[in-house]
Write a structure and sequence with these properties.
The complex is a heterodimer of chains A (about 190) and B (about 120). By secondary structure, chain A is an all-alpha fold. Chain A contains 9 helices and no strands. Chain B has about 120 residues and is an all-alpha fold. Chain B has helices at about 5-40, 45-85, 90-95, 105-115. Chain B is elongated, with a radius of gyration of 47 Å. Chain B starts with a helix and ends with a helix. Classes of the chains: A mainly alpha (about 190), B mainly alpha (about 120). The interface of A and B includes residues 64, 118 and 183 of A.
Chain lengths: ~190, ~120
């Protein structure tokens, strides 16, 4: 029997664990984009970000039979796994290794000028994010780009809500300082 | 308010005028970058989605095989035990036992000692 693709994460995961393979696709479609986004911004490397996304979901498939929906939301659990995988990879990198500028596709919509400016701002953000300490970077990405509520970020990062607030505030200030140094090039002074 | 106080207020307001644009620019810069980043969220490629779904199939298949494999193993072992019992009852175990009991008779020694003691 096929599970409704609109079912909740927990229902889909239960169905998958019970042998309904069709339940895996909606779960993947729901979570892969967010995981990829976080990983890409954490690592600055598209290929590594894809590996992290795949690995996080692989762990979900493996844990499916033992999944306890009372203990965590699937999305928070996945963010936590992906965050840890990203941090592991960052720590394995040599300290002198530069982060590659991500070549993200430019989203359709808006005029050429607007798209160009968006692309410049996005690249500037990538470079600025790479200069933040890893946990500050993660907190800023989850809060300000993925727009997760602070309690979810706290759960995903395994820290308290106060610590999340502190990390995001410091990270945001640091990013603002880095980006405002390029305000003319990025067109911030005219807004 | 003294002239010195006026100077102090003037200095403070001047400082605020100077500090505010920078702080504001920093906030605007961060906000604009976040908006651009949200708008350009990377989409997973078809290849990545295929890799993820292949993993899901593999994990499910392995789990199914593991479960049925264990049940199959138990059934096969049980059937083999019954078959051996029917075909050769005691034969397999009996082949590994010594042909005679390993305990030596103790009675003659006792008889000798009793004879020495006499009536």
């Amino acid at each position: 029997m096929r599970t409704d693709p609109e079912a909740s994460d927990a229902e889909l995961l239960r169905a998958y664990a019970a042998g309904d393979l069709s339940a895996a696709a909606p779960l993947a479609r729901r979570h892969a984009p967010r995981l990829l986004s976080v990983a890409r911004r954490m690592l600055g490397d598209p290929a590594e970000a894809e590996d992290v996304t795949q690995e996080a979901l692989l762990r979900l498939w493996r844990i499916a039979p033992d999944w306890d929906p009372e203990r965590a939301a699937v999305s928070t659990w996945l963010y936590r796994v992906a965050s840890n995988l990203c941090i592991d990879r960052l720590r394995r990198r040599r300290p002198t290794e530069p982060l590659e500028a991500a070549n993200m596709p430019v989203a359709p919509g808006g005029g050429p000028q607007e798209r160009l400016q968006d692309a410049q701002r996005r690249d500037a953000l990538e470079q600025a994010l790479a200069r933040l300490p890893e946990r500050q970077r993660l907190a800023v990405i989850l809060r300000h780009i993925e727009e997760l509520p602070n309690p979810d970020i706290a759960e995903a990062m395994g820290i308290g809500v106060d610590a999340v607030e502190s990390l995001t505030a410091r990270g945001r200030r640091a990013l603002g300082r880095i980006l405002s140094a390029r305000k003319e090039a990025l067109g911030y002074d005219g807004e | 308010m003294t002239g010195n106080d006026d100077d102090g207020v003037g200095d403070l307001s001047g400082a605020r005028r100077d500090a505010l644009p920078d702080a504001l620019i920093e906030r605007i810069a961060a906000d604009a970058a976040f908006v651009a980043a949200r708008r350009d969220a990377p989409a997973p490629s078809a290849l990545l989605m295929a890799r993820i779904e292949r993993d899901a199939r593999r994990v499910a298949r392995t789990r199914r095989r593991g479960g049925w494999g264990a049940v199959g193993g138990l059934l096969a072992a049980g059937a083999a035990g019954v078959a051996i019992g029917l075909v050769d009852p005691g034969g397999v175990i009996g082949a590994y036992l010594p042909p005679e009991p390993a305990v030596e008779p103790l009675a003659p020694a006792y008889e000798f000692q009793l004879a020495e003691l006499g009536p």
